Amino acid sequence: MSEMTSQAMPRPADHPDAPTGKVAVLLVNLGTPDAPEKGAVKRYLREFLSDRRVVEIPPLVWQPILRGIILNTRPKKSAHAYAQVWGQDGSPLAAITARQAKALQARMGAGVTVDWAMRYGNPSIASKVAALKEAGHDRILFAPLYPQYSGATTATAVDALGAALAEMRWQPAIRTLPPYHDAPAYIAALKADLSRQISALPQVPEVLLLSFHGMPERTLHLGDPYHCHCRKTARLLAEALAADFPQMRVDTTFQSRFGKAKWLEPATDTTIEAEAKAGVRSMAVAMPGFSADCLETLEEIALQGRDTFLAAGGESYAALTCLNDTEAGMDMLEALVRRELAGWV
Ligand SMILES: C=CC1=C(C)c2cc3[nH]c(cc4nc(cc5[nH]c(cc1n2)c(C)c5CCC(=O)O)C(CCC(=O)O)=C4C)c(C)c3C=C
Ligand SMILES: [Fe+2]
Ligand SMILES: [Fe+2]
């Protein structure tokens, strides 16, 4: 068949050659168990902690430890923690990410499809990328919702995207959202939302901790930019907040330590205790590295953190919420996404 004949032939809308040109945004976060139960948590932790981007110990050494010890002890403890924060609509991380996608869809209008996926557990990145392609999206903005880049979060999400694309004969075109730790829209959203929350407290706290998820300290020396990104976010945010709350001291800490290696310091839990013991009576903790509230913010910081602070002599403790699907948070997401979609829509 000549080129001319084939071009003259009418093409049905569902023909694979039909130029659909549909654009999608896929919001991605870490992932969470399907239920706050031992079995579901074990499946989730097996996938998560088998990721060589997350635990950088040779598999021949790590897998026996993971399967022989950790997966026999941690799921029960973690399931109990998840049960304390589980809501009507499931895991907070999944429920909030779904709400962010819905709110962004409303802002972007019918010209762009917005969906969400998780790096571990469900809904998987592979299933969503395949479904978007199937539905005629030939351009996808892949947006891992980690303001600070790390190998253990951003890179592994992009790895999973790459693995999904590797299964496709005809791939969609891809853009990925870069880290946004110092984006003016991000710092402005945090300043607005945290100022609102702090102003609603009975008093301005003496100390505000900016608590970021930790990482093994070794990753810093290997060149992972995560620690530097956290420090820069903290500096810009502290400068922005100083205008509204000049008396409030702002410090940076790292939470959620896992395993035996040395992690980034200072640690959030020991700092909360040390501050109370040193005479600080009122404290607030913000977690700017989390785009959505999750186990690590709602259980570790809001519940355990309060117990620690009060037991050490503190009197007033507030765990501030993440940007989630607040107006400020959605203004930021919309701005970042529109910037990345330039030329596509
Ligand atoms: C926001 C950035 C995150 C970084 C960086 C990060 C690194 C990291 N995490 C672990 C181990 C665990 N993290 C767990 C939960 C968890 N971690 C993040 C985010 C980051 N992790 C989130 C958003 C969550 C919450 C998930 C939820 O369902 O709500 C857990 C599981 C829970 C538990 O059993 O405690 C583990 C384990 C490592 C080892 C690591 C860096 C190498
Ligand atoms: Fe984590
Ligand atoms: Fe934790």
TrEMBL record:
CDD domains, A to Z: Ferrochelatase_C, Ferrochelatase_N
Subcellular location as annotated: Cytoplasm
Record keywords: Cytoplasm, Heme biosynthesis, Iron, Lyase, Metal-binding, Porphyrin biosynthesis
A Gene Ontology term for the protein's cellular component: cytoplasm
InterPro entries: Ferrochelatase, Ferrochelatase_AS, Ferrochelatase_C, Ferrochelatase_N
Pathway terms, separated by semicolons: Porphyrin-containing compound metabolism; protoheme biosynthesis; protoheme from protoporphyrin-IX: step 1/1
Keyword Cytoplasm listed: yes
Sites where the protein binds Fe(2+): 213, 296
Matching Gene3D superfamilies: 3.40.50.1400
Enzyme Commission code(s) on record: 4.98.1.1
Spans traversing the lipid bilayer: none
Reaction(s) catalysed by this chain's protein: Fe-coproporphyrin III + 2 H(+) = coproporphyrin III + Fe(2+); heme b + 2 H(+) = protoporphyrin IX + Fe(2+)
Entry-linked Pfam families: Ferrochelatase
Keyword Iron found: yes
GO biological process: heme biosynthetic process
GO terms assigned for molecular function: ferrochelatase activity; metal ion binding
Similarity comment text for this entry: Belongs to the ferrochelatase family.
Functional summary from the UniProt entry: Catalyzes the ferrous insertion into protoporphyrin IX.
HAMAP family in UniProt: Ferrochelatase (MF_00323)
Protein name: Ferrochelatase
Organism: Croceicoccus naphthovorans
Gene: hemH
